[in-house]
Amino acid sequence: MSNTNVAGDTIQAKRNLSKYYFYGLLSHLFFERGIFIIYLGYKGLTIPQISLFQGIINAAMMVAEIPTGIIADRIGKKYSLLLGNIMMITYYLLMIYSSSIFGFLCAAIIFGVGSTFVSGTIEAYLYDLVPGKESSVKYLGRLSSIITLALGVAMIAGGYIQLYSWELLLMAGALMQFVGILVLLFLPNIVYEAAASKGQIFAVIDNVKRDKVLLEIAVFLGVNVGMVSASYILGQRILSDFGMPTQYVSLFFFADNIIATLVFSQVENILRFFGQKKSLVTSFVMMAAGFVLLLADTLWWSAASILIISITCNYTSTVFMDCFYNRIEDSVRATGGSVFNMLSSLIMAGVFGLVSLFGPHYLMIISFAGAMSAVVMLLFSLKTLTMVEE
Fold first, then answer.
1. Percentage helix, strand, coil, to 5, in the chain?
2. Which of 63, 171, 258, 318 is deepest in the core (most CB within 10 A)?
3. Helices 222-241 and 333-357 sit at what angle, rounded to 10 degrees?
4. How does the average pLDDT of the chain come out, rounded?
């Protein structure tokens, strides 16, 4: 191939990436995300019915995660994302026009399944678009920062749009999904031959047998991310229990989203400046300290601990997931990502189960288990220091 053709391919790849970043922004503008529970109450659902709604979403996601990952590898990640967007539009329409609990529960199922067509796949598709010889971690960091910023901005904007109309809020979300579909249509669909000739689960198993690090990343990082996600969600309750007003809790997590955007965008620079060993070891030591600080009996220390845990996890998970996606075969990348998400969801479900059983002591459970997961990841990092360069 001539240098001119190589340059042309690189230019086209850059254009595709720009379109994909725009798609990532549009498809994650969920304006109702921070206030959908209030909307369900506005529509007349009781607290038990709202709890059932959220429970069905989680159940649908856990059941559909791996099957939708397999579908993405079979038909192409572009079409998997399109299916997810179409299901999200259907979810919004049901949320607007449903007048009974049955309609809302159907919306919950569709949202849960639709989310799994996107989760894992959106990162896996990125690796199909990245120019072959370039560092992929900067592109993953950039995509993660765009998605995080979109979610944060949408949460703030949603509170103001709702002042005019709940229906306008939900229609705006549906419109963003539709525009995202239009952008996605201009991107290529890539299907690897191996995906059509061999079962994805068996291919993932074969991949793991040849590369034990893949299994270790999936298990150790899955547990760690699950613990961090649980602590992050319960962080709203922690800050509220210390007397922080609801509007300030919302602003606190919006600020965390902005910080996360900066962290994601600078992952490659952090790796280059501090080095892999120093940055990962420091991050996991700080994360363990953050989990311990959750036990501090003050608002400010608790807020600081949540930020420390979030910042360090955003950095370390990006580094390890980049390693994961680079090591796994192209033909089963989406399925592999779905397996990882499934494991993280199971860990989260287990944590919330323990919290429901030992409610008064939930902080101690999260603090201890979270700190232990950070220590395990620290030891794993020391064992596999060269993984990113391999």
1. 85, 0, 15
2. 318
3. 40
4. 82
Q: CA 20 to CA 17: how far, in whole Å?
A: 5
| Identity at 226, one-letter amino acid code | G
Closest C-alpha among 161, 311, 301 to residue 244: 301
Q: CA 269 → CA 9, 54, 315, 366, distances in Å?
A: 26, 38, 11, 31
Instruction: Let me know: does 271 contact 279? Beta carbons within 8 Å.
Output: yes
Q: By C-alpha distance, which of 235, 216, 212 is closest to 224?
A: 216
Residue at token pair 């856990």: 62
**Distance between CA atoms of 63 and 219, rounded to whole angstroms?**
19
Cβ contacts of residue 35 below 8 Å, gap of 6+? 158, 159, 162
d(CA 47, CA 292): 33
90-100 pLDDT, tens digit each: 999 999 999 88
Distance of CA 198 to the CA centre of its chain: 28
Which residue bears the tokens 């579908």? 71
Nearest in space to 288 (alpha carbons), one of 270, 307, 308: 308
Give which of 238, 245, 273, 370 is closest to 312, Cα–Cα.
370
